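To whoever picks this up:

The parser on our side crashed when reading a file containing two proteins. I've narrowed it down to the boundary between the first structure block and the second sequence. Both blocks are reproduced below exactly, byte for byte. First block:
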Amino acid sequence: MTGCPVHRPLPPKPAPRPDKVSLLGYLRLFRRDILSAQPARLYHAWMAEFRTPFFRSYMCNDPALVTRVLNERPDDFPKSNRIGEGLAPLLGRSVFLTNGEEWKRQRRIIDPAFEGGRLKDTYPAMLAAGQAAVARLSEGEVEVEEAMSHAAADVIFRTLFSIPIENEVAARVFHEFRAYQRTQPILNLAAFLPLPRWMPRLHRRATRRSAALIRGLIAQLTAERAAAIAAGTAPDDLATKIMTTADPQTGERFDASEMVDQVAIFFLAGHETSASALAWTLYLLALYPEVQDEVAAEARSLGDSPDFAAVGRLKRARDVFRETLRLYPPVPMMVRENRCPEDFRGRKVAPGAQVVLSPWHLHRHDRLWANPDAFDPARWQTEAGRQSARDAFLPFSAGPRVCTGAAFAMIEGPLLLALLLRSFRFDRIEGADPVPVAHLTVRAENGIRLRVTRRAA
């Protein structure tokens, strides 16, 4: 596929808001969905400023500014605490929310578990989860977001704790997380107002309840694993690796409370984001059946149980998955806070401003990508496409804070796609096209429904 056929609709994109709205109107839009709360001009602008009585924010689409914030001077642009306010009940002091020396210590312990050799060790569990997803899938009309959430959660539990999703505790975590996702807006009131630390954060009761239940179940899993490690009977999986790895600088390991925080973010980042990307990929392949047939043919050439090396041969599946991550990045925006006085494209920025980096807008920016709203997996094999990716492709962030599971996700995604497409065909249902919205990740407002039929052997 070298371009979008003229008779094909473009992949769905939320309608932008008018250029001018009131502050209250903007906050209401933002709390409901951050994608449709933005004006269309952000797909062309290099920078935009937003002022409120409580803070100023700057969206930076200029690749030079993005590089400054993420790669060149990350310590001067820590993660904004405003964004963490909404996720703290679930994630505590996880690596996703911390900054400075605390964050660096956490990454020194976590990163070794996701090095190349360890990924190969986790592959059999990932393959088993993919095969289980194929076995669970039924023909007919299927809500694929839910199906992919199930599959991605299974991958996490098998690779992290060596248990399948059918395990009683794993199943309860999965179902509680679905409840948490439905009650937790991406931002709560504290993201907009400078509340003192002693003031309650006004989280919804259902959000607090689900977060507490999830953390209690994770605490049970980590306590059981700690006992197995002490007894010498623990499996050699990601949880064991992380819990037995000492900080090379201090010799310290994660205590039980810290491990609960980290497992919570592994589940959020490794399950929620993968589920989003897989569901949108299946929808795009239903929208472009000729590309789906190419990926299915590639998958059939690998056999029933492809080994780790075979994933490297899934070139078409990989390009399709990357193109989905471009159009529907699971984490649509990242927020940093500048510690130093800055000059952004000739504009003075005082310390304490919110610096917004938006993969959603960068990936569709009309100065950085050719046909930015088109689904075109072939762009990844062109020099122009590769240059655009170097300048403006951030599905896993970049720099020192790049997602530690990025390589894991780029194995998981193409593998699960191949296993699913070699067995099933996914077709669009007329009148049921999804509308993207941002909650914890970029999801469909009313789910993604596709018609599923089994392929002939």
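<<boundary where parser fails>>
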Amino acid sequence: MSDTSFFADMLQSITDRGRQLLFSGSRATQVAARVDLQTLCEMLLSSRGEASGMALAAEILDRWAALEKEGAQKFLHMLHEKFGADTAMLEQTIEHYRTDKSSAAVIALHQAAEPRRQELLRRLNHAPNGTARLVRMREQLLASEDRSAEYHALDADFTHLFGSWFNRGFLTLRPIDWSTPAYILEKIIKYEAVHEIAGWEELRRRLAPADRRCFAFFHPRLADEPLVFVEVALTRSVPSAIADVLDEAREQINADEATTAVFYSISNCQDGLRGISFGNFLIKQVVDDLRRDLPGLKNFVTLSPVPGFARWLAKARASATEPLLPDVIGQALTLLDDPNWAEVESSAVEVQRILLPLAARYFLIERTPEGRPVDPVARFHLGNGARLERLNFLGDRSSKAMQQAHGLMVNYLYKLDDIVANHEALAQRGEVIASPAVKSLLTQNEESRRGGNGQQGSRPFAHIMNSKLGGGRK
């Protein structure tokens, strides 16, 4: 028996005994059946015994799991309405802090400002399988159509707690291969979010060959549930298209022949942990493990999707009140409206000429309101210390990639000596570290497809874009 299963069995035994103490006897059972969830939650917050607390937590989570959609929404609403901060106590501590700036007053203010539901969630976490069930509860919250203030307040509490519970220090990295238990391999198939795995045979092709590797990060309270997994191809060169990696007819090589490790799929597995940072440098640990086992590896790169690019470009094209693109560029991009444009050589050449400088701007200039790169995959890799190395036109011709990014893929380079400096450049200065080839796309001279009176046609592409887009970051 593993340590994890022994611990889980022990918790379940303690919980069962606690339930016997709380709900023993026919009268107590009848009373318990009439107690609503709000009362049970109040009982849990006032409980002082470990066994009784675990029993109450298990009872609450069992009842929550049995709720239909409407009941589950009412439960979340109740958490917001009935288990917020004690406003009277908060006002009192605020007034006290105005006259007393001591450490004790700061601590009292912090405690009074914390919503009671945070402590409630901590105590619910003590139930057997409590962490996994709370992750599912947040998944339910994120799936809700409600985006009111109470939704944001409740999600902020989950995010605050999960940010501590799923700290990078708690995660363990484990290799996944064809001998991994089937119940975990099934989850790899289920959770693959970048390049769909059609079934067991395709999974075997990704795990069994000598030039393939896979790693997953696990949390001790979700022992059999991968949080993130990384699929790796061992190659002799940096690929520019996903077909070079996943093609059934590709040439297989021995692991010791490889010079390059390609991270071609990184999937977050738990929807309830969406937006929760597991810390930076996850990929660095995978790199360290690969280098230890395969010292001949020299290059560590990704072949990554660009899920936000088509949406950003569509918004730029559709802007009527303040056009984001010069007319000549907008006209050329009408080629994208033909679903078969990539199959027509002249169209593909023209789209490539226009699209790559726009993609460079998307990565290097565009920002969220918080000052971060707009592309979610870029935020992950750049935050992990990678360099934006190369833009790959039509790197992925699948329908999903054509819809999300007009087929664009990118290589991010993980150079161990530069990872920390690259991370700090983004974190401290908001700077995206990129290769000279990518940077040159912003300044290369692009003659417009139709130059109008001829004046604009000879102007540098970057000058046209900056004059239209205002030049600075968003």
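After patching the parser it read the second block fine. Residues 25-31, 445-474 have pLDDT under 50 and may be disordered. The CA atoms of residues 11 and 222 lie 15 Å apart.
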